[in-house]
Design brief:
The chain has 283 residues and is mostly helical. 76% of the residues lie in helices and 0% in strands. Helix 1 packs across helix 10 (238-251) and helix 3 packs antiparallel against helix 6 (143-163).
Length: 283
């Protein structure tokens, strides 16, 4: 695969990941749709598009993945939606991706992976940045919403760790989305009294599921074939920046000094940790 194509696919994937934050925030702020319904429509439409893509590629009907991974996927999607009721797009993306990377780096440390002084320093810097971002203050994000997004990030980190060794990542993702449907339908049924449907909100949810999630993951897995592990981890640091820019452009959100400082600490710390890895390591 040529370098321009790899760059294009990677850019599209990062735009899709940031698009998830923008679409969710748009739906929950600009329309009356409730978070549970948004989550269900996102996961169901994602399962449908991923299933169709798998079939178009001529793969078998065998459902891969696992119920444990599907539960982690559901917790991520639900926490993501409920957190964005009050969080700005860039703030949510920063908390999400910060929690994801800290979870994955922390897991490596917990399981005995030997970390260099640079990696340990990066991990501590990122953790301090995350804690500092959440300290009480005029521009601090809502604590409950922040906790939900951090939980979503931890769940996505667990989901990512469980899928690292998948031989068929696309089929695995399709299977996990399908298995997540009963969980999300149960959530919607348990909150049926708060259900609120609007055409615009439903369209945002379907776009988040089918386009920025389903197609976005497909593009990302295609790009991953030609990216090292370090490159793949590094480029994802761009997502909170893109989401923050999208929030300013499309949602009129403000760029606060706290967000700038926290972003520098969190993303800088994560970069220190992941850039220490071997540049030849394959994904």
């Amino acid at each position: 695969m040529s370098h321009p194509r790899v760059f294009t696919l990677t850019l599209l994937a990062m735009l899709a990941f940031a698009g998830n934050s923008i679409l969710c925030r748009l739906a929950l702020r600009e329309t009356p749709i409730d978070a549970a319904t948004f989550t269900s429509l996102r996961l169901i439409s994602g399962a449908i598009i991923l299933g169709l893509i798998t079939q178009i590629k001529g793969r078998s009907l065998k459902v891969e993945g696992s119920w444990t991974s599907a539960l982690a996927l559901f917790i991520y999607a639900a926490g993501f939606s409920f957190a964005y009721i009050k969080l700005a797009a860039g703030t949510g993306a920063l908390l999400l991706f910060g929690a994801v990377q800290i979870t994955m780096i922390g897991y490596g440390f917990w399981t005995g992976e030997r970390l260099s002084k640079q990696q340990i320093a990066g991990f501590i810097l990122a953790l301090l940045g995350l804690v500092g971002f959440l300290l009480p203050g005029l521009s601090a994000p809502p604590l409950q919403s922040s906790a939900l997004m951090i939980a979503a990030g931890i769940a996505w980190g667990i989901y990512s760790l469980r899928g690292k060794t998948a031989s068929n990542p696309m089929e695995m993702t399709a299977g996990n989305f399908l298995r997540a449907v009963p969980f999300t339908v149960g959530l919607s049924l348990s909150m049926i009294s708060e259900t609120s449907l609007t055409l615009a909100g439903c369209l945002y949810a379907v776009a988040a599921g089918a386009v920025t999630s389903g197609l976005g993951y497909t593009i990302w897995y295609t790009a991953l074939k030609d990216l090292t592990a370090t490159s793949a981890a590094t480029v994802q640091l761009s997502v909170p920046v893109i989401a923050a820019a999208g929030g300013i452009l499309f949602l009129g959100e403000n760029l606060t000094l706290r967000l700038v400082v926290a972003s520098s600490a969190i993303l800088g710390g994560i970069a220190l940790a992941i850039l220490e890895k071997s540049p030849t390591e394959a994904t």
